[in-house]
Structures are given as structure tokens and as C-alpha cells.
């Protein structure tokens, strides 16, 4: 507060009074400076209005939405890749089963032919 009182005003002509310095500090650091009302000093620093706060919250929501999109995009791709891997694994398993059946059929035919040869 002493620094505020010793600094020149914006127009550079005279220094701030102690009351104005106290008013500036109180309005910056307290929500409702009751002291200023009792002393009869109006707010020096106007706090942000409701519309400013709403605009700021809207900006934060948009920022949060952008972040969600940035996070969801890799998650979606990861999910798609996982589904593709599962499909490939299912196809591989199915192909192995088919190959096993074909091999069993060929072995049965080969056994049949070998038995025919040995029987002669």
C-alpha cells in the first residue's frame, strides 16, 4: 500500500492519496471491501461482470471440448485398432481350424491308399 501511495497517478501530476491506495489494494484482494463503503470510497477497480465471467466460462468449455476431442481421437483409433486385431485373430483361428480339418482328411486318404497298397 505504501508503494501505491508513493507512485504518481496515471496523469503523472500528483501522488495517490493513502485512501486511494488502500482502496486499490482492497478491491484487488477482497471480494467485498466493506471498509470502502464505510469510508465512503467507491470501488476503484471494477471486478469482472457476470457477462465477462460467463464468456470466460464459455471459453473454458470450448477449450475443454477441444481437449476432449484431442484425447478421444487417439482413444477412438486405439479402439478401432483393437477391434481390427480381434477380427484378425478370429480369422487366423478359423483358418487354422480349416487347415487342421483339411490335413486330417488328407491323412485319412493317405492312410487309405497306403492300406490298399499293403493289402495287395
Task: Report what the structure shows.
Residues 78-107 form a coiled coil. Residues 1-19 have a biased composition (Polar residues). The chain has two domains: 1-47, no CATH class; 48-120. The chain is 78% helix and 0% strand. It has four helices and no strands. The radius of gyration is 41 Å and the shape is rod-shaped. 4% of the residues are buried. The mean pLDDT is 79.
Question: Could you list some keywords that capture this structure?
Answer:
single chain; rod-shaped; mainly alpha; 120 residues; 4 helices; coiled coil; 2 domains
Radius of gyration: 41 Å
N-to-C order of helices and strands: HHHH
What is the typical, i.e. mean, pLDDT? 79
Shape: rod-shaped
C-alpha end-to-end distance = 119 Å
Number of helices: 4
How many strands, what sense, and barrel or not for the largest sheet? none
Helix amount: over 70%
How many beta-strand runs? 0
* Classification by helices and strands: mainly alpha
The amount of beta strand, in percent, is under 5%
Instruction: List segments where confidence is low: pLDDT < 50 over at least 5 consecutive residues.
Output: none
* Count of discrete structural domains: 2
Entry summary:
The chain has 120 residues and is an all-alpha fold.
Amino acid at each position: 500500500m505504501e508503494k501505491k501511495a508513493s507512485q504518481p497517478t496515471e496523469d503523472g501530476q500528483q501522488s495517490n492519496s493513502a485512501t486511494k491506495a488502500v482502496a486499490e489494494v482492497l478491491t484487488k484482494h477482497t471480494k467485498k471491501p466493506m471498509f470502502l463503503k464505510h469510508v465512503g470510497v467507491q470501488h476503484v477497480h471494477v471486478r469482472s461482470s457476470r457477462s465477462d465471467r460467463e464468456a470466460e466460462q464459455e471459453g473454458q468449455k470450448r477449450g475443454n471440448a477441444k481437449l476432449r476431442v484431442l484425447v478421444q481421437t487417439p482413444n477412438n483409433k486405439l479402439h478401432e485398432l483393437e477391434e481390427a486385431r480381434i477380427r484378425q485373430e478370429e480369422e487366423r483361428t478359423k483358418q487354422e481350424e480349416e487347415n487342421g480339418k483339411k490335413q486330417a482328411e488328407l491323412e485319412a486318404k493317405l492312410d487309405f491308399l497306403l492300406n490298399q497298397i499293403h493289402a495287395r
